[in-house]
Amino acid sequence: MRNENSDMKKKPKKENRFLDTLTTIRQQIDSFERSTTYRKLAELILIESEERYRTLFEAANDAILLTQGDQIVDCNPKTLEVFGCTKAQVMKEYPGKFSPEYQPDGKLSNAMAEEKMNLALEGSPQFFEWKHCRYDGIHFDAEVSLNRVELSGKTFLQAIVRDVTKRKQAEEELRGERQKLQTLLEQAPFGMLLVNNIGDYTYMNPRFRELFGYTLNDTPNGKTWLRKAYPDPSYRGTVIAAWKEEIKKKSRNKKIPKTFTVTSKDGKTKIANFKVVHLEKGGYLVSCEDITDLKRLEDELLKAQKLESIGILAGGIAHDFNNILAVVMGNISLARTHINYEGTASDRLLEAEKACLRAKDLTQQLLTFSRGGEPIKKTIELKSILQEAVNIAVAGSGIECQFFIADRLFPIAADEREIRQVLGNILSNAREAMPSGGSLKILVENVTANPKDELPLLERDYVRISAEDTGPGIPKNQLQRIFDPYYTTKPLGIQKGMGLGLAICYSIIKKHDGFIDVESTVNEGTKLSIYLPSATNGKSSFLSEIVT
Hints:
Layout: H1 2-33, H2 36-59, E1 63-68, E2 71-75, H3 77-83, H4 87-93, H5 109-121, E3 126-133, E4 139-151, E5 154-163, H6 165-187, E6 191-195, E7 201-204, H7 206-212, H8 222-229, H9 233-248, E8 258-263, E9 269-278, E10 284-290, H10 292-338, H11 343-369, E11 378-380, H12 382-394, E12 399-405, E13 412-414, H13 416-433, E14 438-448, E15 461-469, H14 476-479, H15 501-511, E16 515-521, E17 525-533, H16 542-547
């Protein structure tokens, strides 16, 4: 208890000594501030500060003006250069002479200037863009900074004006170039894609999105793109290997395009040429062009040229073969007359005669396939011809047939015998594809071709005849060859499997300025469509114009 009282007595004494010390220090400071030495030191500091300000003021690369109230107090040499005038002219006519009546936003220059000057004098620095005038009236763009400054105990408003006309012009030119580049990218007739160094897609132009249906959200990087655009793992591996090899070639010489089959977002496949360019600042520019139509046209041209070459050869052989058959058949008939059409020998000769007749039918097919003989066209009743051909083809086959024939079909001018032959071959193929029965759907309708159909047809009216079966389908690797002469997936023989049926159909339809298109899915069936031009439109098909 005694110790606690002793501590309490000591504590006030320590606090009193500390306060006395602070009081003494304060008295010494007050005495120094009142002294002549302090005043001289403060004056020297102020003079040095003002001299330093004057040096910066004179050497500044921006126009600097000092105002006090409504008067210009001073301006630096750069002011005279920026405004193209003398100091007397600035002192007399600033700021009214050196600003247009209105600023670009439509506000009065005087009102805006007064508002910003008042805010700066209140202690709120102002920085803004301004439209100024030279003394000769030429406008220029400027950046203005307004600040309140204290000099020699007086308050001034300091205005710093920077001429940014050249910078604005450069920015406008850059903006124009960017706009041109943006327009080029947005309206380019081919797809463009920017890829950074880690494989992320940073830009995708509208044509790229239009071609494949994918957006940056769908395919934000190369890994996602590869998985969606090339769903087959084996083909994807081939594409990846080709890209890796291409990326290794950092040379900016002419690149050979890589051709890939891309699966679009809607599931359709498109053939596209891709080029990749390594950018100097890192990343890659990928461009792509849809060549699906071009490849289709190339295939059709190649097919037409092949058919033409083989047709000429086949026609020549058929004529010679017919002459030989005529001799053989004549001698067989004479031989049978000598034996009175009786006995084993006569039976053998009869079989030989039948074989000759079948061979004659084959030569007739070859002649039809060859270039010789243009179709004799006349207006035909397509509906009755088609129904008759279907009834003959499916008789006794157990195939269920459905007809969907539109009313008021466009009139067709065609060689009836050749059209019957085409329908017979196509329907016969459909029947052979379903030996155990199935379903055959016949659809006939009017259509108008347009570029979106991706078919080598002119924009005109056609009648489309479609036959869709439920057979085993045709693999993709065989689909492009089914119109090749002598190509067949069926057993070889005299009556079927010669591989001429669809080749003859193709040749006939081409001569009618039409087209045959085939779609097939394995284990689902095949759809074959014939396009015959309307007799009311005299134009020829695009493919025929090129070939001929």
